[in-house]
Design goal:
alpha+beta; nine-stranded antiparallel sheet; two-stranded antiparallel sheet
């Protein structure tokens, strides 16, 4: 049976705007008929991928999402003394293997920029460099199916691709099913975004010029207790990593730290928001996953929103267990206010879900 690890977090954000909509205001959602602030799944996954636990602890095992693979190949070849025109042609040839190149106007030269943000693993990036060297040496690349098998792979050592998946509309054969599902986080209580009007002073402007500010503006912000849910298909994670159990365990450990500590960085210089999860519940087992968002469809109210949110979450988990049977085989909790549990313990608990096995060759 499939093994799952589920994460439930409650995090208190100060007045901030970490994830903006198209107008620059905090993203929102209507939940249970009450307005809430929201953090998109995409912004949370980006924060996780950019966290130190992925950048440092998983160094060499992160993918790169970019349209500029060809540009990087071109600059690499030029750095080896290859002429600009030849380098561009080779880069075009190799970059086109990963995604279609952007269309050019009549009379312009094709540039090695792809139409798709291809999620490229370290192994695939190294292969792209090898292929460009082979083209430079005058070799002919393998044809069609043989080449296709070489380029974008289904399983490799990129933990973030293994976790969050990959989609290439141009060639679905190279899609990767995500082993980690991340929900949109939303406040457990009713919140309306507020507006901040601000002004800036021109240091060289005197009262003789005029008494007005050098600049005026406004932006939205809000604060609240956010509930975040994430679910990991452990078996799929190991499969996506070509059976490397040790790397999958490291990935789960890093994910635990990142979920508790990483945050979208929108307007961070203006608000200095660096929240840490106040409550974190990690569950593991083979039962069908279930989120606990229903605990907050009736907006939490009262003087202590965090305590009331924790109480509602735990009560909902118990009610579901009573009706359906235990939703997990084991669970571990960190409650900062109660002084119970530590993040290190939760990270080790999550990592231990991966069965022991040899690292992939």
């Amino acid at each position: 049976m499939t093994t799952f690890v589920q994460f439930h977090l409650l995090t208190a954000y100060p007045p901030s705007n970490p994830n903006r909509d198209d107008t620059g205001r905090p993203k929102q959602a209507l939940v249970g008929g009450a307005p809430r602030l929201r953090l998109s799944s995409q912004s949370l996954k980006r924060a996780i991928r950019d966290s130190s636990w992925f950048l440092q602890d998983l160094a060499g095992h992160r993918g790169t999402r970019t349209k500029r693979l060809g540009i990087e190949l071109k600059e690499r070849l030029e750095g080896k003394g290859v002429g600009a025109e030849q380098a561009r042609e080779i880069a075009n040839t190799v970059a086109a293997l990963f995604s279609k190149l952007e269309a050019v106007k009549k009379g312009e030269q094709q540039q090695p920029v792809t139409t798709t943000l291809a999620f490229v693993s370290p192994d695939e990036w190294k292969l792209a460099e090898e292929l460009s060297d082979r083209v430079l040496a005058g070799e002919e690349l393998p044809k069609d199916k043989e080449l296709k098998k070489l380029v974008l792979r289904h399983a490799d050592g990129a933990v973030d691709i293994a976790m969050f998946g990959r989609m290439l509309a141009d060639d679905p054969d190279f899609n990767r099913d995500a082993a980690v599902q991340v929900a949109h986080a939303f406040t457990t209580h009713r919140v309306l975004a507020e507006d901040d009007w601000f002004s800036a002073v021109d240091d060289l402007k005197t009262a003789a010029d005029d008494a007005g500010a050098g600049h005026i503006g406004e932006h939205g912000f809000g604060s609240g207790i956010y509930y975040l849910y994430a679910c990991v298909n452990v078996d799929l994670l190991v499969e996506n990593l070509a059976g490397d159990h040790a790397l999958a365990a490291r990935g789960l450990q890093s994910l635990t730290y990142a979920l508790a500590l990483a945050t979208p960085r929108g307007k961070q210089n203006s608000h200095a928001h660096h929240p840490r999860a106040a409550y974190m519940r990690v569950e593991r087992g083979t039962q069908q996953p279930r989120d606990l968002s229903g605990a907050f469809f009736h907006a939490i109210a009262g003087e202590d929103l965090l305590a009331a949110s924790i109480d509602s979450l735990e009560k909902t988990a118990d009610q579901i267990d009573h009706a359906y049977g235990p939703a997990c085989e084991k669970a571990q909790v960190m409650n900062v206010a109660a002084g119970s549990g530590t993040l290190d313990e939760l990270a080790a608990f999550a990592a231990a879900t991966v069965p022991a096995g040899a690292a992939a060759a």
